Amino acid sequence: MAPPPPTWPTEITDYIIVGAGSAGCVLANRLSADASVGVLLLEAGKADRSANIKIPAAFPKQFHTRLDWDYWTEPEPHVDGRSLYIPRGKGIGGSSSMNAMLYVRGRPLDYDGWEEQGAPGWGYKDVLPYFIKAEDNSRGASEYHGAGGPLRVGEQRSPRPLDRRLIAASVAAGIPRIDDYNGPEQDGVSMFQVNQDRGKRFSCADAYLRPVSDRPNLEVRKDATVLGVEFEGGRAVGVRVQGRRGRVEILRAQREVILSAGAIGSPQLLQLSGIGAPDDLRAVGVEVRHELPGVGRNLQDHPFVTSIFEVSDVDTLRYAEKPKALAEWLLRRTGPLSSTVAEVVAFHRTRPGLPAADIQFHMGAAYFEDHGAETYDGHCIVIGPVLISPKARGRVWLRSANPTDKPRILTNSLSDPDDVASLVAGVELTREIAAQNPLAEIVLREIKPGPAVSGRADIEADVRRRLMLIYHPVGTCRMSDTAADAVVDSQLRVHGLEGLRVVDASIMPTIIGGNIHAPTVMVAERAADLIRGAVGASSYQAPTDGPSAKASATGA
């Protein structure tokens, strides 16, 4: 049944931000700091009150619930035709209310690579100040870190003592110890720093939104599903929104509409609004408003697989759900429930000649398989190699013209031989780590892949059979002033249109070497300055041979 016709307009504000996730919360804070402008933040989900949000170790409990967009890929041709699960936070805080709270920035070369691909102002020297600005790091201020910013970054509250064995065994296997993997060098093994406040999750809603909730010029609206962007000619002037009772409204933005719905939601909204590859849009009955073939292309994510070993050490997360552990967390915010599950991180190059690490290990004192859904009656450690510089590229495209239908997604994971080689080498190294003392002293047996999996061919088959995604989708609204498939320019404005930007992980030209939450916060911090004209707003010149020039030439 078609929704009732909208009323026009029911509300007028200056900025409309779609999505109260990591980027949207940052923007809402920074833009509403100017009391002369109105900011409306729209979120399809609900409030972030669930205990499974607040308790760090409970993050997998959010999967497949109302707190989750619960996306799945199409059958993936290179992983035995399996559909891969992609959880995305649905509610205030977005995926910052669902992730594992691991604070990782990536490498300097990641951002210098963005600049080389046509995004001036996004090199490492340009983005580092925004990482620093965002941080309230427990280690204090330094050349590479900030203190006093909104986002709390600190040490883990109650790490498992077994972590010392994991680190020592990694060093024995050839991975050096590193004190700060978020500095200029990344390679090495360390404890994760985390986004927590005294053992409790510290999301972007906690960092950026809650402290300014009383601003009269900022409205946060929950249960508001955006159906599409409204235009007058080539300018975005508002959004069409369906509220809790099914009523459809058109909300008007006098200055800009900003999409911060993530690497799946933002391209979907652009396509629903008639912006994208014409053949894809016509295939589902969407009228083409503006030709922009790169919308939804360039999808990247970090695939991973697990190696799991049963151990004799009983101080693991096996009993984290018992009443005693819950009581400890409720009373003192300590104990196993304050864990991020993965507590140790290591970055490693699996072969000579690589410019940076190709594998990131997530390690912890737990049994973690099938995104936490599979259980095991025993004490375990997990060492999960993650492919952090994948060559595979996928896409997001519409399933239908119905805004409530989930889009189609394909990552093409393991389509490139180098990606396969890196993950196979990563699994081999997990076995080397487990064979080193002092870890070997407590390892009882290998559960996965298991002793029957021996040799590279067997490991490759096992990787294709069990591979998962680690919840880092990016790239589907690629940023570049010059690339033919770019969706936004270096100021994050949608090419060929006015009054419309995209600010979230979808703008990343290539995925960064690590978890994407911290980089997404950085992107939004810098975007806020671009929008307010605080940096670079007057220096941009429209390219003569890029996608903006093409759009202008066609009258778009």
TrEMBL record:
InterPro entries, per the entry: FAD/NAD-bd_sf, GMC_OxRdtase, GMC_OxRdtase_N, GMC_OxRtase_C
Record's keyword terms, sorted: FAD, Flavoprotein
Pfam families associated with the record: GMC_oxred_C, GMC_oxred_N
MF terms in GO: flavin adenine dinucleotide binding; oxidoreductase activity, acting on CH-OH group of donors
Domain Glucose-methanol-choline oxidoreductase N-terminal: residue ranges: 89-112, 262-276
Cofactor(s) the protein requires to work: FAD
Positions contributing to FAD binding: 226
Entry similarity comment: Belongs to the GMC oxidoreductase family.
Name listed for the protein in its UniProt record: GMC family oxidoreductase N-terminal domain-containing protein
Source organism of the structure: Solirubrobacter ginsenosidimutans
